[in-house]
Design a protein that fits this description.
Blueprint lengths: L1 H23 L6 H58 L1
C-alpha cells in the first residue's frame, strides 16, 4: 500500500514538472521583453557615454592641476630668489 502511494506521488510530481516545463516558458521573447531589452541597452549606452565623458573631464582637470602645481612651484622659486636678493641689500 505504501509503495503504491509513493509511486503515485512520484508519478504525479513528474507529470506536474513536465506540464510546467511545456507551458511555462516560450522559446522567443515577447514584445514587452524586447522593448525592455532595448531600453536597457539604451540606458547602458548612455551610462557608458557619461562614464567616458567623466573620464575625459577628469583627465583634463588633472592636466590643469599639474599645470597649476608647476606654476606654484615656479612662483615659490621666484619668491625665494627675491627674498635672497632683498636679504643681500
Amino acid at each position: 500500500m505504501r509503495k503504491a502511494v509513493r509511486t503515485c506521488v512520484v508519478v504525479m510530481a513528474a507529470m506536474l514538472l513536465i506540464l510546467m516545463a511545456f507551458t511555462g516558458c516560450t522559446k522567443h521573447a515577447n514584445e514587452q521583453q524586447l522593448q525592455a531589452l532595448e531600453e536597457t541597452k539604451a540606458a547602458a549606452q548612455a551610462a557608458e557615454k557619461a562614464l567616458a565623458d567623466c573620464k575625459s573631464e577628469t583627465a583634463s582637470l588633472e592636466g590643469q592641476l599639474a599645470e597649476k602645481k608647476q606654476a606654484l612651484e615656479d612662483m615659490k622659486k621666484e619668491q625665494q630668489a627675491v627674498s635672497q636678493r632683498l636679504a643681500t641689500m
